[in-house]
C-alpha cells in the first residue's frame, strides 16, 4: 500500500475512535461536570479552577486552585481524595472550614428545588470528578 493511503487509513481510524459512543459519553460527562462546577464551585475556586474566586476572598483560607491537584500529587489525579474531600468524608482540623460538605448539602445550585439524591447525586459527582481530571495542568 502506498504510504499515503496508510496515512489516510490511520486518519480514518482515528476519526472512528473519536466518534465512538464511549468517547461521546465521556465528553458529555465532562461537560455536565463543568456545569456543576460552574454552579457549585467556581465562586470560590475560580471560573477555570485557578483558585481564590471572589466568594473565597473574605474567607480565612482562600480556596486553593484545582488545576494543580495532579501536579501536587506526583502527576496523578487524586480522584479518591478529591471525592472524599468534596463529600466531606475526610477528617478536618477545622470544623468551621468554608468548604461545604456536599454529601450534607447536596448540589443546592444545580437542584434549587431539592429532590435529587442517591444515584442522581452519585452520577453527578462522577461527572464532576471527570471534569476536574480533565482540567489538570
Ligand atoms: C464557600 C467556598 C467554597 C466552595 C463553594 C467550594 N470550595 Fe473547595 N475549598 C474551599 C476552601 C476554603 C478550601 C481550602 C480549605 C480547606 O481545606 O477546607 C477548599 C478546598 C478544596 C479541595 C482540596 C484542595 C487541596 O489541594 O487540598 C478540593 C478538592 C475542593 N475544595 C474542591 C471543591 C469542589 C469540587 C467544589 C464544588 C463542588 C468546591 N470545592 C466548592 C472553599 C470552597
Automatic annotation (TrEMBL):
<protein>
    <submittedName>
        <fullName>Mono/diheme cytochrome c family protein</fullName>
    </submittedName>
</protein>
<keyword id="KW-0732">Signal</keyword>
<feature type="domain" description="Cytochrome c">
    <location>
        <begin position="28"/>
        <end position="136"/>
    </location>
</feature>
<dbReference type="GO" id="GO:0009055">
    <property type="term" value="F:electron transfer activity"/>
</dbReference>
<dbReference type="GO" id="GO:0046872">
    <property type="term" value="F:metal ion binding"/>
</dbReference>
<dbReference type="InterPro" id="IPR036909">
    <property type="entry name" value="Cyt_c-like_dom_sf"/>
</dbReference>
<dbReference type="InterPro" id="IPR009056">
    <property type="entry name" value="Cyt_c-like_dom"/>
</dbReference>
<dbReference type="Pfam" id="PF00034">
    <property type="entry name" value="Cytochrom_C"/>
</dbReference>
<keyword id="KW-0349">Heme</keyword>
<keyword id="KW-0408">Iron</keyword>
<keyword id="KW-0479">Metal-binding</keyword>
<feature type="signal peptide">
    <location>
        <begin position="1"/>
        <end position="24"/>
    </location>
</feature>
<dbReference type="GO" id="GO:0020037">
    <property type="term" value="F:heme binding"/>
</dbReference>
Amino acid at each position: 500500500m502506498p504510504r499515503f493511503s496508510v496515512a489516510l487509513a490511520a486518519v480514518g481510524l482515528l476519526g472512528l475512535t473519536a466518534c465512538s459512543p464511549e468517547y461521546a459519553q465521556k465528553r458529555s460527562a465532562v461537560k455536565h461536570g463543568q456545569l456543576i462546577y460552574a454552579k457549585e464551585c467556581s465562586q470560590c475556586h475560580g471560573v477555570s479552577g485557578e483558585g481564590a474566586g471572589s466568594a473565597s476572598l473574605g474567607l480565612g483560607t482562600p480556596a486553593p486552585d484545582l488545576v494543580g491537584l495532579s501536579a501536587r500529587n506526583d502527576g496523578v489525579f487524586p480522584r479518591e481524595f478529591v471525592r472524599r474531600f468534596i463529600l466531606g468524608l475526610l477528617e478536618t482540623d477545622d470544623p468551621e472550614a468554608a468548604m461545604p460538605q456536599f454529601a450534607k448539602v447536596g448540589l443546592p445550585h444545580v437542584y434549587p428545588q431539592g429532590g435529587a439524591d442517591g444515584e442522581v447525586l452519585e452520577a453527578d459527582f462522577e461527572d464532576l470528578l471527570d471534569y476536574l481530571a480533565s482540567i489538570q495542568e
